[in-house]
Each structure stands twice: as structure tokens, then as C-alpha cells.
User: Fold these one by one.
Assistant:
Number 1:
Amino acid sequence: MIIIITNEAKRITNIKYMRTRKIILVAFLSFILIKSFGFTGKEPIKWGKVSKSEFEINSFRGDSSPPAIILCDYGNIRITNRTMYSHHKRIKINHQEGLKFSRIEIPYNDKESHDDIMVFKANVYQYQNGSIIKMQYHLKDARSISSGNDTKLLVLDLQDVMPGSIIEYYYEIASLDFVKLDDWYFQSEIPTLWSEIRFEVPSPFFYLVTYQRGEFLSEDQQLKYARNLQWLYNANRIKRRVQLSKNDHLLYQSSSGNYKVFVLNDMKKKIVMRNIPGVSDVAGYVTVKDYYPRLRFDLFESSGHLPWFYRPLIMTAIEDYETRSRREWLSSNEKRGYVQYRLDTWSEFNEKLLENERFGRQLIKYLSAGPAFQKIPASDTGSVSKMEAIFKYVQKSFTWNGRYQIYANRDLNRIPENDEASSGEMNLILINLLRRAGFDADPVLIRTSNLGQPETIYPVQHQFNHVIAVVFLNDEMFLLDAITKNKPYHELPDNDLHTTGWRVNKDDFGWIDINPI
């Protein structure tokens, strides 16, 4: 079953999101939503073609002097033997404060050639004495810097930029993204005159494409969407195609129209929004990116004798793909020949985690716990102080290496004391030791708050980047994270808070609301 709110899960489920928190919503002055199942018309922007009239754009509706204005933001996603992203952005710099937008930062995954930057170029335009002067930049002018885990930034600080300049940049990335593609955000901290995304889906694949504009679904809405998703699981392909075609490929839509889910297969689609005000901050604990209107792309299904052409993508559908080396997954027999991929239900997702050699299996390995238990007073049996002693042992015996992960890259019993470890390794060691000491302890997967809220209707692969511990003791629930040296056991790091985590347990799995005490 795909329905996520069951009698069992309700005992620990508290999916509130932002509907119980006050959020300042800024109304869009004007927007157009264009649904097309074949790309029509020309591209909205041409490289190197800047008109004199664009230099005269200095204001946006009620804002007479924004620091900068995005004239056009145009993206294209195509699924081939790689996922091909292209992005073309043009910005008018109005005054000194807008000069910060002359720094271009493009994130990409550097691990095992997951992302290859195929094209990168940038231009700076100035209007002087009735003529447009152009300065050109190329990939060789940029530099790559690490931004944590396997992510890097391609960075270029454009020169010759001044108030009144227009900048534009274009890049193409060949990626191994497949199950989860990059989100497209229509809004930014500065006004946007035109934002357009095009998405091309080949016939072997079915994608859920979610349009979300500042709305988080209530429990009733989640149940309705989950029922529709269950129908998608159960219906045969012919019936499914016919019904979706009648509904313009729309699987679910909220009453406000701010949350829509399309099912796309063997077609092209474009969505355009215009005249979008800039928003740099919102009230409450939602990240500003969670508020921006956006599109999300999640693979629902692929089956059949897929050609070798698609093999690089298919391999990334393996649950623990990110923990394997390129050599490991290229030599694997998994996903060869006939391929049957379908989005997991939550129960399937939970079961696979428990059986995963780099996650659930690590919790039943024998760890040398002598040093940890020696620090526990003999009189303590199941007390808070006993839990705290184990927490402090892990906290002080290992040093977080700065990498958020949910899997352990090494066997936990092979990690020596005083060694560096990832967040997953440290907290899986903590949970293992807590269980050996007799505590009711489980892993809780979270998406750190800087990345925004997780998808709760269906499991999105790789959306979780961190694991913490939950302990149920004396009718109380304790959430523990050992990665920081200076935090007491009852205080979570800020990046863990104001989100919802998935408790991994054989029977009592479900969502837990994570907020400061």
C-alpha cells in the first residue's frame, strides 16, 4: 500500500509542515502557466542577442529600483543515456547592490564523474555611446571549489560589470541523475520577468512531475493524493494511459491549484511563469526555497528490455548507489537486460533500509562496547544518565569529518576510536551501542533544514542526507545527534531542526516531527 497514514504510523506521525506555522505569503502580481505536450514556438532567449531596450529595464511593477532583474531564466532537461541539463540565464544589473549577481556558481556532483560540465560560457554587455559592447568568458576562466560531500561549485566572478550592465551565462551538464532530477525554481530573491523550463521524457520512463507553489499538503490532502498514487500503482498500463490522457496527464491537484502532479511518458512539456516578484525571506521555519514555486521530477516507473544505451542511468537506481565506486557498479550484474523499476512504497523503502548491508545490517554487528559501558555507573539500568554516557562516548571518541550521509561506507567495527567518521557512521555506532545497552533506539532519516522539507507522500531516493537517533525511554522520546563536540545530548544541531524525519523500524516506522524542545 502507498497510503502512508496507517493506524500504526499515527502513533508517531506528526506531519504538520508549515500549515500550523505562520508564513508571510507574497502574492504574485502576474503569472502564466503554459502546459504543452510538444514544444511550440521559439526558445525565449537567444545567446548573444541583447537588445537596446533591455538596458532600459530598471524597475519591476511596484519596485522602482530592484538591485537586479532576471530578464529570462530558461532551462531544458532531456533524458538520453545521461540526463542532459541546459540552463541559460540573463540578468540586468541596476545598481551597486546588484553586483553580487555577477558571481556565477553552478553546483555539480564530482563523485565518479556523476556530472560532467560539457559547455560553459558567459557574456557581459555594456551600453556605451549608442553601441553594445560585449566581453566573453569561457570554461577556462572559471574555477571549481568544494562545497561539501561530493558537491563542487563551478565559480566565475565576472569582471567589467557595473550598474547598467547585462550579464548572461549558459551551461550544459551531462548527469547520471535518473530517479531524482534537479528541481526547477521559478522564483528568486530578485524579480524575474520570464522563467521557463522544458522537460523531454522518452518512452521507457514514467516521471511524476510536481508543480508546487508555497503550499504544503494537509493530512486530508495527502490521503487524497496517496489514493491517486495507489491507483497509479494498481492500474494496468493501457487503462492508466487512457485515463491520464483524458485528464491532461494530471494525477492530482489541490483545491487551490498550487500543488499539481503530472505523470509524463513519451512526451515533451514546458511550463512558463512571468512577472514574478523577488522574495528573499519568509516568516516561520520554512526555507525560502521551499516557498518558491518550483517543479520536482521523480521517476515513477521504467520497465522492459532497455538498450545498453541506458545502462549508466539505470545503475543509479540502485538504493545504495552513492556508496559504491564506479568500478563496483559497472561490474555489477544488477539492472542488466530486462529492467523493472517502480517507485517504492514506504513499507518497501523501510524494509530495504533494514536489509541494507551499509545501513540496517550495521546495527546488528558486534561492536566493542567495553569503553563505552565502563563509564556507566553500575547502579544505572535503563536510565537517562546511562543513555547520556553512551552518547558522550561516541561524541568524544569520534570526530565528524563534515560529511552528511545516511549509509556507512565502512563496517562500524572497523572504525577505530579517535578516527574521523561521517554523520551516518557516527550515529549508527551510537544506535548500535544504545541497543546493546538495552535501549529502544532506532535510526531517523532526515533532510537537513538547509535543503528544505522532505517529500512525505512517497519515498524519494537520496532526499535524506543525514541520520540521527531516536530513543524511547520512560514514556519520553529523545532525539540524539553525536556529530557536534559541544552539544549536550538533549540539544540537536540547528541544521537538524524544523523538519520531519523518517523512523526506520521493522514495525513502528513512520514520520516524527523534529522541533527544538
Note: Residues 455 and 463 are 8 Å apart (CA to CA).
Number 2:
Amino acid sequence: MVRKSSMLLLLIIVIAGVSISSSSLRAQQTTANYVGPQACSTCHGSIVTSWNNSIHSEMIKKLTPELLAEYNLTEADLQAHGIWPLQNFPYTIGGTWKLRFLNATADPSNYTKWTVAVWQYIIATGEWAPYHPEAPKDWGAKCAQCHVTGFDSSNETFWGTPDQLTVSVECESCHGPGSLHITNPMGNKMIIDVSAQVCGQCHVRGSFPEYELGDPSSFNYTHGEKPHKHHQQFYDWNMSAHSRSMETPKPADFCLACHSADNIFNTELITYLDIMYTIQNATNPVTCVNCHNPHALDLRISHGSNAGAKADEITVCTQCHTGGGKPEEMVKDEWHHTQAETFNGSIHYASGVTCVSCHMPLDTKSAVAYDLRNHTMIVNSYQTYEYSCGQATGCHKEQLETWPNWAEQRIEEIQTTTNDTITMVEDAITQAEAAITIANQTGADPTLIEEAENLLLKAKSYLSFVEADGSLGFHNPLYSLSLLNEALYYANEARARVSVVIPEFTSTALLLTFMIILLAAVAYKTKTKREN
């Protein structure tokens, strides 16, 4: 009892220490000043270089002849769309999907009062499109907070000069102002916040949410706009199972590697804090930084021996969604997340389809239709399979044009076949369990019983592998059915091994046998439903 109380006290102290540390960092943030990425590069050169090559560093650009040449624009193009004279349009916004132009005509000296030009350039198509022509958007009130660092929307002030606007979204947007850290790096640590709310400050649709770095609970925002728009990643994430990955985790620390962004503190990716996160004190679920390198913005591996390595559109998912092997290679009572092993070798895999092709369909618009991915991880986003199977990918566009429900019916056909086969395997396993029970009660040869039990375990292993994939066969229909057929074979073999030694029964014995089988079936069904 004393030991348990001591452990509880230690846990309270650790959690309190984390809380005090976060409060201290937030208090420090209010007294520190912004210094810019060049100051950070003195110690964090490689990270700043990564950032400098990311789109975060290009949220604001100076409108120069070199920039026009980069996008094959001419002065005539700008004149034709009212972006003239150039000195009245000193900066552009963005540069990946579209270019918008800041108009300083109203008050050239007060950059917080600039407006956004009524014409924007769509990079993907090389076309011009209107942007709020009825009422030019106020850049200071609507855009600046997410396109530059250190902008205070409450009083529309910026920490630097207009020339410093081009630092865009830099280190201090996510880590807080750094002047005190520079003077005393270990005494004044920067904020390291792995919550989705950090990205959600900007990657969210609607008004700017209120948020204090280091305090996820301060995020005050309710999504209220329609989908299919850019900046909706936080809204999508909040609807996904990733946002709920800590609601029912298994009570083991190793689960954190896949269930919580807090586990990143336990890896070499972050060596800044001396806090070890366990299942008891971790709070963040899977967030943006589990998949995205926040400095370079590319996909990454966030745990294990390859932590920090770049990932592709399959390995970013299979770092967690893997069973660690195949049932042909090992026998397990219960498999977990077998998507990687199931999908590998499928016709979709062979065709170059990746996990994100279907689970993050291109259904969202930034500049043109289908140029951004959905982050809900739901294949039938917006209650249709058109985006994951047809419109954006073009893979099955012809089938869907002639048969709108083609994808839905094809998926249902595969899953129904798989589910029916699973039921057959479950029935065979139930019968095998009943036969083994009878063999034990009638004093059958222990060697035969052991052989039957091993065969039964294989049957359950194969079945569990298919069920743990979660797609009811769709990730790889032929492979899933072959595994279920193997399970059916092992279950029938298990029953056959002990059935040959069961003596003839009287009518009473037959009734008893029937009752045992019935009870076993009910128990197995109940167990299966509970596990699912």
C-alpha cells in the first residue's frame, strides 16, 4: 500500500511539473520579443534551412521582377488586372496554389491597413480569377495573422518593419517569441507544443481561433462553414479517429508510439525536454506532427529506429498500421492493425495506389478543384466514393459516369463475401472448440488434443489477422479470402483430429453434446462482439 501511494505521489508530481513548466513558458512568452529566423539559425541552422525550403517561408513574398519571371508573368498581365503601378503592390501572398497581391494604395505607410487585390493568379491553370471583387479583403484583419509571424489581430500591430514581413510563418509562430531564449537558452526554453491546435491556429476554416501556445485547452473555435474549402485541415482532423486515439488506448506504454503525439518527446526527434511520457501522463492523441515534419513539412517517420526519416504516402501510415508480420510466419492469439501486410501485393498496390489515395482523397479546393486532400481518413468523404475512386483520381471515372453506384456496390460485394466467409470460419471454430471440449471430458489421447488445439490456434490466428485489417477484405480481397480458407481448413482439421477418438454416444450423451456446442457457439459469438 505504501509503495502504491508513493507511485501515485510521484505521478502527481510529474504531471504537476509538466503543468508548471507549461505555465512558466506561457508567462515567458508574454514578456519575450520576436527576433526572426536568422537569430534562430545560429544554433539551429539545419532546422532553419529546412524551414527556408518549405512553403511556410513563402507565405509573403516581395513582388520583384524575379518573382514575376518565376511564374511567367509580365507587367502587361498585372496592368490588365489592375495590379499597377507596382509600387502600390509591394508583396504577394502565397505561391504554391495561387498568388494574391497586397494593395498598399490606401495607406502605403500603414501595412496593417493594406487590402488584397481583386484579382488573383491561379498557378495550376495559369489563369486569373476574381477574389472578393465586391469588397476587397482587409489583409490586416483577415490574412496577416496566418501569413506572417508576430501579428496581433486585436490591435493590428506587427513586431517588425514592412521588410520583415517576408519572414512569413517562421519558428516563433509555433514556438513563441525568442528574445529571452537567445540570452539564456537553457534558462528560458522555447515552447514545444505537439498538439493539433498549433497547426489549427491557421489550418482551420473561419475566424481566427483564440489559442495560447503550450495550452491546448485554450483553443476556442467552433467550425461553422461548409466543407470543400481550403484551411479546413483542423476541422477534418477533429472529425477523424486520429483525434480520438487516446480515448481507449491499451494500458501499455508501448502503445503510445502510435496512439499519442506525446511519444515524440520520448524519441531523438526532441531532446529539449526531460519529460518521459507514459500512458498515465500523455494527453495528446495522434496529431499533425505524427505524420508531418513541422519544419520541412514533408511526411516523416515519427517513432522507432527510423524516427525522423522521410516517409512516403504508404510508409507514413504503415509505421503504425502494421501487424508486424503475417500469419504464415507467426501464430498470434490476437492481431492488431494488419493493414500494411494485407494491402501489400494487392491489385491497388501493384497499380501504384497508396493509402492516402483512398483515405485522404483529393476532395478539397484551394485554388482549383481537387488540389488538397481530406484529413478525416474516411474513404467515402462527404458520403460519396466519387472523390476516392473517380473524380479527382480518374481511376474509375468512366465506371462512375455510367454507373454512379458502381464503387459502392463493388465495395459491398467484396465485403459481403468476406463477411460471409468469416461467419463460416467462426462456425467451424465453434465446432472445433466443442469437439476438443468433448475429447477432454472423455479422456482422449492428450497428444491428439494438443495437436487439435494447435490447429485451432492457427485457425483463430488467420481469422484475427483478416479481422484486424478492418476493411472486410477490400484492401486485398484475394489474399483475405485465401487466409480465411486457411483458417477454415485448420478449424476443420482440429475438429477431425479429436472427432475420430470420440466414442459412440447414447441419446443422453448426444443431447449433452448438442448443449455443449450451443453454449460454445453463444460464448464465441459474445466474445467476438465484445472484441469488436
Note: The longest strand covers residues 98-103.
